[in-house]
Every structure is written in structure tokens, then in C-alpha cells.
Amino acid sequence: MKFMLTRLRTLILALAGVPLAACATDTGFLDRSVTLDGVSYRYQVYVPVDYTPDKSWPIALFLHGSGERGADGTVQTQGGLPSAIRGERKRFPLIVVMPQARDNTRWSGAMAAQAMKALAQSSAEFHGDPQRTYLTGLSMGGQGVWLLAASHPHTFAAIAPVCGFIDLANDDDVIGAGQAALFVQYPDIRAVDPFAAFARRIGKTPAWIFHGAVDDVVPVAQSRGMAQALRAAGAEVRYSEYAGVNHGAWDRAYAEPELVPWLLSHRLDAR
Predict the structure, then answer these.
(1) Is 4 a domain residue?
(2) Is the dihedral of CA 70, 73, 170, 252 positive or negative?
(3) Would you say 153 and 80 are in contact if contact means Cβ atoms under 8 Å apart?
(4) Across the chain, where does the E strand assignment appear?
(5) Where are the beta strands (DSSP E) in 71-200?
(6) Fewest C-beta atoms under 10 Å: which of 1, 88, 89, 160?
(7) Alpha-carbon distances, residue 263 vs 7, 104, 175, 196 (angstroms)
(8) Is residue 253 part of a domain?
(9) pTM of the model
(10) What is the rounded distance in angstroms from the CA atom of residue 87 to the CA atom of residue 17?
(11) Residue 116: which CATH number?
(12) pLDDT tens digits, residue range 159-208?
């Protein structure tokens, strides 16, 4: 019966000449794709249930970790921020873009480019606010936060990396040409003090940094170093280090009740 009523409503609207897109907007986790240099990349975008197109919306780019790489376009929504959204959607009154990096890549080069294009495409489709655009990610995605924030210092109003890193010793599954290309794009990685070098590129972008104190995958010194360097550069920094927590600090980070309000309190034009 529900199916028949839906079909009847669709037929009535079509006969009345009313565009269906103008009548309703899908919400929740939506499938999308973006094309870059002839290659199609699937991604997902979260749209709050109370979304309306008559105003601008805050928008965040979420970068997954190494375990969610692939081309299916869905695995990246199974943990971290997307999982937190599914658990309590009312806490997340913003558009969230979730691209997916291919196997044996990181968030640099083409993967960074397709992520930024997915963000731009979603912002155009769902009225994203350029003054309230945010960046977060975990593990390999935490590294991606540092990389994209350094490459786009005037794009994000605030950033929230979780167990991120700069040192490539934590990225040994991507070697050869990909690693060489990363050094070309980010020579700062080889600087005497890479934390200070990245902090100079990121500038005064506010950052809330998260890490587990006993992380045996990405040393906590990576986040401590970036927090110290950003503070020395004059940036607003919050740092949360979870005692007794190993690499999965993202469960605690994305459950922080103050995280989303903190992000939304920042505007690009206020810096």
C-alpha cells in the first residue's frame, strides 16, 4: 500500500508539472560520486533530517583511516565520525562529506584532490557555508588533516585530527613512487623540525587534537609535537590525550559532547 501511494503521489506531481527535487530532499547517508582526471570515486554525504535548502549549512570533510581504503564507497562510513552520527544524529547538525581513498594510497595527491572535489561538490549541492567548513579524520585520516590543512590554509574554519601523524615511519604500507610524490608535495616532512614547518603552513587554524596515551600504532609524540608547534605559532589549540587508550581514540573523540559545538563556534572570516 505504501509503495502504491508513493507511486500515486509521484504521478500526481509529474502531471502537475512540479519538479520532484523541489518537493523533498533526501536526508541521511547518501551515495554520491565525483570524477577526477577521468576516474570516478564514490563517496557518501550525510544530510541532517531537518535539512532545508533555504539557508547555508556548516559542512565537514571526514577522512577515514587505512583500514577503510577501497573503491566500494561505503566502508568509510562504518567507524569514527560516521558511526557516531548513526548513534546520535541530533548531535551533528551539519553536512558531513565522507570520501574514500583507494588501496595503497594516503590522503595526498589524487586522493586529496578527489576529497576536496567531493567537498566542493557537496557544498554546492547542499548549500555548504564556506565560512563554516571543517576538517577531521582519524589515523591515516589524521595525517590527512595535517596534509590538507597545510595545503589549504584558508579553507577550514577549524580542524580536529585524531591520532594523526607527520612522521612517515607510521605510513610504511605506502612506498615507492607514492612516497616520493609526497616528499615533493610536502618537503616539510623532511625538515629538521617537521612539526614547526607544518605549523607555519597551517597558520592560525584552530585545532582540537586527540590521541590515546598508550597508542602503539601512532606514537602520541606525533600529536604532542603538533600541538606544541601550533601553540608556538599562535594558533588556538585544544589537546585531549586519553589515559590508557590505545590507537582507537576516535571512539572517545567523536563522543566528546563539546566537539561539534566547538567546531561550529569557529568561522573562517573571524580569523
Answers:
(1) no
(2) negative
(3) no
(4) 28-36, 39-47, 57-63, 95-98, 128-138, 158-162, 207-212, 237-242
(5) 95-98, 128-138, 158-162
(6) 1
(7) 41, 31, 34, 24
(8) yes
(9) 0.88
(10) 39
(11) 3.40.50.1820
(12) 999 999 987 655 555 555 556 677 777 888 888 899 999 999 999 999 99
